[in-house]
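Interim report, section 4.2 (structural modelling).
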Amino acid sequence: MARYLLKRVIYMLITLFIIATISFFLMKMLPGSPLSAADKLSPEQREVVMDKYNLNDPVPVQYVRYLANLAQGDLGLSFAFDNTPVSKILMDRIGPSAQLGAQALIFGTILGILFGLIAAISHNGVLDYTSTIIAVLGTSIPSFVFAGLLQKFLAVEWDLFPVALWGSFSHTILPTIALMIFPLATAARFTRTEMIEVLGSDFIETARAKGISEYGIIFKHGLRNALIPLVTVMGPMAVSLMTGTLVIEQIFAVPGIGKQFVDSVMVNDPPTIMGTTLLFAFLFVAIILIIDLLYVIIDPRIRLSGGK
Amino acid sequence: MSKLLEVKDLRVSFNTYNGEVQAVRGVNFELNKGETLAIVGESGSGKSVTSKSLMQLLPAPQGFIKSGEILFEGQDITKLSNRAMQKIRGSEISMIFQDPMSSLNPTMKVGRQIMEGLIKHQGLSKTNAKNKSLELLKLVGIPNPEVRMTQYPHQFSGGMRQRVVIAIALACNPKVLIADEPTTALDVTIQAQILELMKGIQDETDSAIMFITHDLGVVANVADRVAVMYAGKIVEVGTTDDIFYNAKHPYTWGLLGSMPTLDDDEEELFAIPGSPPDMLNPPKGDAFAPRNEFALEIDKVMEPPMFKVSDTHYAATWLLHEDAPHIEPPEAVKRRMQGFSNTGSKDDKKK
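Predicted structure of the assembly:
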């Protein structure tokens, strides 16, 4: 297990290195100047500023310097946001995003599993069709449409929650709902299909023949086996949450990483764009690692290579 | 011998898109304490459906008991609620399934799978259930039960898994044990071990076993009585000796003739021609008539009733009617039956 973990962490670092490299050179290829109001500066002034940020060095030199700083955990200073260190910007902004993402993932998955279970139990019944319709709507309608609808009805018309901005817990409710629709729908669809299949398998018949109650069959024998494939889609689900935050945070004016990312692209601030990209990449590989570890916990048949 | 289980005119059907499939069409039999009844027949003859309807484990909502009674110790269990049936399943009547590879829960420790029934039916505490499970694993011949208890099914071989399935079935000392082709998925040496194990357990617990199989070799080995099923009906029933030495139904002759043996000179294996009827529209008259070289005219219009051959032996064929022409089984089958009586049956061995 320890060896496996070490191996995976090394892979993670390699992945991050590659992503850092690609995004660094992509940034360099971008047209335009990172300096705000560049056209209002005289050539001399521009030289001074470029020198200050070491932008006149050859690109390979800049690249090596960037990597060296990165290895020490230094993401550089932002050009646009008052020269704040990028790491501080990220630290300040990650809270709301993490909270929204966690809330959406947890409530979305739990509710989705519940919907899927209900659908599987009432297979081909009214509840089954209802939950299937919800699942189809949830996967096909983009989250920003939901966000708009939620704002219009729950916030503006009925005044139940704040329209936007960040503050109390009630501010988190609408963005969480908008974000969790996709994981909810995915989890519901998967749980339903898997549960129906599991309930038709031989070992369920064995359990019935033992005299186990329906409750025991569904929760003790069925659910765990049905959840194994669900773990597989948790990866794409988590990714959709991350990309979802880009849009949702913008719509609800949440001061999170997603909004920061969009803002820094708008003002063309390379250090911040690089920093947020790397943060997203890190979260992504970390989630994949966690999911692979979850497999081992949930399915005793899976043994990690080198883990015995 | 006391009647433990009595099945009266049981009819089971399945609703499909094409209509009602009549899987079981009026089956009568009884099971006595301590005896082993084998139900034989080819695939689709309704033997597994019969056994599942005893447990009321028919796949809902398509499968249903259309009519008939299943009397367990005098009580008609077809009328019981699902909750009441749960109390009977696993404690009074339990079942051993065909495929040990898929009949255990892959994500639950073997020990817990055995303990479940004990906790549910006998209200045992966890420690007591654990101790009982250890005993059961020893009883079914699993070495190192303490270690095995904490393992998952994928860590067991096929034969060992079937032993676990048997341990689960035996957990609450059931009065009736239904074994649905318990050895079909196992290789031959393991088959023999499992059969020996089941016989040994029966001697110890005196439970009745209903043994469903299409393997006549297994039948000769374990059964006291045999019921032959064809197209959802029992066509011949008798003691093992009756069936193996003195079969009367042409279908039974066909089964006996198609049994591979080592000591035969015949080079070709006999096969019953044709295939079983479509149970969506069961044929009028005797369902076996189209495949029966001895079929009479009446077979095409009227179903034969059960004719009595002896007190223990009945067969549903018009050949037994007093007006029917006297027909001897084919020579090959006759030689087979002769051969069986020379080698001796289970009962002879006991004596």
